[in-house]
Protein backbone atom coordinates (compact mmCIF):
# COMPACT_ATOMS: atom_id res chain seq x y z
CA UNK A 1 0.00 0.00 0.00
CA UNK A 2 1.25 3.48 -0.81
CA UNK A 3 2.04 5.73 2.10
CA UNK A 4 0.83 9.33 1.65
CA UNK A 5 4.49 10.44 1.48
CA UNK A 6 5.33 8.02 -1.29
CA UNK A 7 2.28 9.12 -3.24
CA UNK A 8 3.11 12.81 -2.81
CA UNK A 9 6.69 12.41 -4.01
CA UNK A 10 5.88 10.22 -7.01
CA UNK A 11 2.45 11.00 -8.43
CA UNK A 12 1.34 9.49 -11.72
CA UNK A 13 1.14 12.54 -14.02
CA UNK A 14 -1.21 10.67 -16.37
CA UNK A 15 -3.81 10.22 -13.62
CA UNK A 16 -6.78 12.59 -13.68
CA UNK A 17 -7.48 14.17 -10.30
CA UNK A 18 -10.97 15.23 -11.43
CA UNK A 19 -13.84 12.70 -11.47
CA UNK A 20 -15.53 14.24 -14.56
CA UNK A 21 -15.87 17.35 -16.79
CA UNK A 22 -12.19 18.24 -16.90
CA UNK A 23 -8.61 17.08 -16.39
CA UNK A 24 -6.07 17.99 -13.72
CA UNK A 25 -2.66 16.29 -13.79
CA UNK A 26 -0.13 16.39 -10.95
CA UNK A 27 3.53 16.15 -11.98
CA UNK A 28 4.86 16.42 -8.43
CA UNK A 29 8.09 18.33 -7.85
CA UNK A 30 9.70 19.05 -11.23
CA UNK A 31 12.44 21.16 -9.64
CA UNK A 32 14.75 19.79 -6.94
CA UNK A 33 14.54 21.70 -3.64
CA UNK A 34 17.82 23.62 -4.04
CA UNK A 35 16.99 24.60 -7.61
CA UNK A 36 13.49 25.67 -6.52
CA UNK A 37 15.10 27.72 -3.70
CA UNK A 38 17.17 29.62 -6.27
CA UNK A 39 14.16 30.27 -8.49
CA UNK A 40 12.08 31.52 -5.57
CA UNK A 41 14.83 33.91 -4.47
CA UNK A 42 15.24 35.21 -8.02
CA UNK A 43 11.51 35.76 -8.49
CA UNK A 44 11.02 37.46 -5.10
CA UNK A 45 13.93 39.82 -5.82
CA UNK A 46 13.64 40.53 -9.55
CA UNK A 47 9.97 40.48 -10.54
CA UNK A 48 8.33 43.96 -10.47
CA UNK A 49 5.49 42.79 -8.23
CA UNK A 50 2.38 44.98 -8.18
CA UNK A 51 -0.96 44.70 -6.45
CA UNK A 52 -3.66 43.77 -8.91
CA UNK A 53 -6.74 45.86 -9.53
CA UNK A 54 -10.17 44.56 -10.36
CA UNK A 55 -13.70 45.92 -10.66
CA UNK A 56 -16.13 43.77 -8.70
CA UNK A 57 -19.83 44.71 -8.62
CA UNK A 58 -18.86 48.13 -9.99
CA UNK A 59 -16.31 48.84 -7.26
CA UNK A 60 -12.59 49.10 -7.87
CA UNK A 61 -10.63 46.93 -5.50
CA UNK A 62 -6.91 46.35 -4.98
CA UNK A 63 -5.91 42.77 -4.26
CA UNK A 64 -3.69 41.77 -1.32
CA UNK A 65 -1.73 39.35 -3.48
CA UNK A 66 0.72 40.81 -5.98
CA UNK A 67 1.03 39.90 -9.64
CA UNK A 68 3.16 40.25 -12.74
CA UNK A 69 2.32 39.29 -16.29
CA UNK A 70 4.74 38.25 -19.04
CA UNK A 71 4.18 37.37 -22.68
CA UNK A 72 5.61 36.87 -26.16
CA UNK A 73 4.63 40.39 -27.18
CA UNK A 74 3.64 43.52 -25.29
CA UNK A 75 -0.01 42.66 -25.83
CA UNK A 76 -2.90 44.01 -23.79
CA UNK A 77 -5.20 41.75 -21.88
CA UNK A 78 -8.49 42.87 -20.36
CA UNK A 79 -10.14 41.09 -17.47
CA UNK A 80 -12.14 42.07 -14.41
CA UNK A 81 -12.43 45.62 -15.72
CA UNK A 82 -8.68 46.31 -15.87
CA UNK A 83 -6.26 46.28 -18.80
CA UNK A 84 -2.83 44.77 -18.38
CA UNK A 85 0.14 44.95 -20.72
CA UNK A 86 2.52 42.00 -20.79
CA UNK A 87 6.17 42.48 -19.89
CA UNK A 88 8.77 40.87 -22.20
CA UNK A 89 10.10 37.49 -21.00
CA UNK A 90 13.30 37.41 -18.95
CA UNK A 91 15.87 34.70 -19.70
CA UNK A 92 15.11 33.04 -16.36
CA UNK A 93 11.38 32.93 -17.05
CA UNK A 94 12.00 31.51 -20.54
CA UNK A 95 14.17 28.80 -18.98
CA UNK A 96 11.42 27.93 -16.49
CA UNK A 97 8.86 27.91 -19.33
CA UNK A 98 11.05 25.51 -21.34
CA UNK A 99 11.34 23.15 -18.36
CA UNK A 100 7.58 23.21 -17.80
CA UNK A 101 6.85 22.59 -21.49
CA UNK A 102 9.35 19.70 -21.53
CA UNK A 103 7.84 18.16 -18.38
CA UNK A 104 4.31 18.08 -19.77
CA UNK A 105 5.19 17.32 -23.41
CA UNK A 106 4.58 13.52 -23.17
CA UNK A 107 1.01 14.05 -21.91
CA UNK A 108 -0.17 17.47 -23.13
CA UNK A 109 2.35 19.09 -25.51
CA UNK A 110 1.81 22.84 -25.34
CA UNK A 111 3.61 26.02 -26.38
CA UNK A 112 2.74 28.73 -23.88
CA UNK A 113 2.83 32.40 -24.89
CA UNK A 114 2.26 34.04 -21.54
CA UNK A 115 2.69 33.65 -17.81
CA UNK A 116 0.79 35.21 -14.93
CA UNK A 117 2.80 35.25 -11.70
CA UNK A 118 1.18 35.54 -8.29
CA UNK A 119 2.92 36.41 -5.02
CA UNK A 120 1.17 35.48 -1.77
CA UNK A 121 3.23 37.05 1.01
CA UNK A 122 1.72 34.73 3.64
CA UNK A 123 -1.40 32.69 4.39
CA UNK A 124 -3.58 35.79 4.86
CA UNK A 125 -3.48 36.16 1.07
CA UNK A 126 -5.25 33.78 -1.30
CA UNK A 127 -7.27 33.71 -4.49
CA UNK A 128 -11.07 33.50 -4.47
CA UNK A 129 -13.08 30.92 -6.43
CA UNK A 130 -12.85 31.56 -10.17
CA UNK A 131 -12.36 29.90 -13.54
CA UNK A 132 -9.78 30.97 -16.07
CA UNK A 133 -12.42 30.99 -18.79
CA UNK A 134 -11.59 34.17 -20.71
CA UNK A 135 -12.54 33.88 -24.39
CA UNK A 136 -8.92 34.54 -25.42
CA UNK A 137 -7.85 31.31 -23.76
CA UNK A 138 -10.38 29.12 -25.58
CA UNK A 139 -12.61 26.41 -24.15
CA UNK A 140 -10.07 23.56 -23.89
CA UNK A 141 -7.11 25.62 -22.76
CA UNK A 142 -4.05 24.09 -21.10
CA UNK A 143 -2.80 25.96 -18.01
CA UNK A 144 0.38 24.81 -16.28
CA UNK A 145 0.80 25.97 -12.68
CA UNK A 146 4.19 25.89 -10.94
CA UNK A 147 4.41 26.47 -7.18
CA UNK A 148 7.43 27.80 -5.29
CA UNK A 149 7.75 28.53 -1.58
CA UNK A 150 5.21 27.81 1.13
CA UNK A 151 2.94 24.79 0.78
CA UNK A 152 -0.64 25.96 0.15
CA UNK A 153 -3.99 24.27 -0.35
CA UNK A 154 -5.43 24.47 -3.87
CA UNK A 155 -9.07 23.49 -4.24
CA UNK A 156 -11.37 22.77 -7.17
CA UNK A 157 -15.18 22.89 -7.06
CA UNK A 158 -17.58 21.64 -9.74
CA UNK A 159 -19.95 24.45 -10.71
CA UNK A 160 -23.13 22.37 -10.91
CA UNK A 161 -22.68 19.52 -8.44
CA UNK A 162 -20.50 21.32 -5.89
CA UNK A 163 -18.17 18.29 -5.86
CA UNK A 164 -14.74 19.27 -4.49
CA UNK A 165 -11.14 18.16 -4.85
CA UNK A 166 -8.12 19.63 -3.05
CA UNK A 167 -4.37 19.21 -3.10
CA UNK A 168 -1.45 20.67 -1.23
CA UNK A 169 0.90 22.41 -3.65
CA UNK A 170 4.53 22.15 -2.59
CA UNK A 171 7.82 23.84 -3.42
CA UNK A 172 8.70 23.00 -7.06
CA UNK A 173 5.43 21.19 -7.79
CA UNK A 174 3.76 21.38 -11.21
CA UNK A 175 0.11 20.76 -12.00
CA UNK A 176 -1.81 21.14 -15.26
CA UNK A 177 -5.48 22.04 -15.75
CA UNK A 178 -6.84 21.16 -19.18
CA UNK A 179 -9.77 19.75 -21.14
CA UNK A 180 -13.09 21.25 -20.04
CA UNK A 181 -11.83 22.12 -16.53
CA UNK A 182 -12.32 25.90 -16.86
CA UNK A 183 -15.87 25.46 -18.18
CA UNK A 184 -17.13 23.20 -15.40
CA UNK A 185 -14.86 23.74 -12.41
CA UNK A 186 -13.76 26.75 -10.36
CA UNK A 187 -10.54 26.78 -8.37
CA UNK A 188 -9.20 28.75 -5.43
CA UNK A 189 -6.05 29.20 -3.37
CA UNK A 190 -7.22 28.82 0.22
CA UNK A 191 -6.11 31.17 3.00
CA UNK A 192 -4.45 29.69 6.08
CA UNK A 193 -3.51 31.40 9.36
CA UNK A 194 -0.75 28.82 9.81
CA UNK A 195 1.30 29.92 6.78
CA UNK A 196 3.87 32.65 7.50
CA UNK A 197 6.15 32.31 4.46
CA UNK A 198 5.70 33.55 0.89
CA UNK A 199 4.54 31.49 -2.06
CA UNK A 200 5.05 32.34 -5.72
CA UNK A 201 2.86 30.71 -8.35
CA UNK A 202 3.48 30.83 -12.10
CA UNK A 203 0.57 30.00 -14.40
CA UNK A 204 1.63 29.46 -18.01
CA UNK A 205 -1.15 30.12 -20.51
CA UNK A 206 -1.76 30.24 -24.26
CA UNK A 207 -3.72 33.14 -25.68
CA UNK A 208 -5.33 32.40 -29.04
CA UNK A 209 -5.07 35.91 -30.48
CA UNK A 210 -2.53 38.35 -29.20
CA UNK A 211 -3.66 41.92 -29.79
CA UNK A 212 -0.50 44.05 -29.93
CA UNK A 213 -0.62 47.19 -27.85
CA UNK A 214 -0.13 50.51 -29.64
O1 LIG B 1 -1.88 30.40 -6.87
C1 LIG B 1 -2.45 29.45 -7.41
O2 LIG B 1 -2.08 28.30 -7.27
C2 LIG B 1 -3.67 29.73 -8.28
C3 LIG B 1 -3.48 30.85 -9.24
C4 LIG B 1 -4.65 31.00 -10.17
O3 LIG B 1 -5.63 30.33 -10.08
C5 LIG B 1 -4.57 32.00 -11.27
O4 LIG B 1 -3.57 32.72 -11.39
O5 LIG B 1 -5.53 32.08 -12.05
FE1 LIG C 1 -6.85 30.51 -11.86
TrEMBL record:
Domain Fe2OG dioxygenase: 111-208
TM region(s), chain numbering: none
GO molecular function, one term: demethylase activity
The keyword Iron is assigned to this record: yes
One of the GO biological process terms: DNA alkylation repair
InterPro entries from the UniProt entry: AlkB-like, AlkB-like_sf, ALKBH3, Oxoglu/Fe-dep_dioxygenase_dom
Domain of life: Bacteria
Keywords from the UniProt entry: Dioxygenase, DNA damage, DNA repair, Iron, Magnesium, Metal-binding, Oxidoreductase
Cofactor: Fe(2+)
Pfam family, one: 2OG-FeII_Oxy_2
Gene3D superfamilies in the record: Alpha-ketoglutarate-dependent dioxygenase AlkB-like
Protein name: 2OG-Fe(II) oxygenase
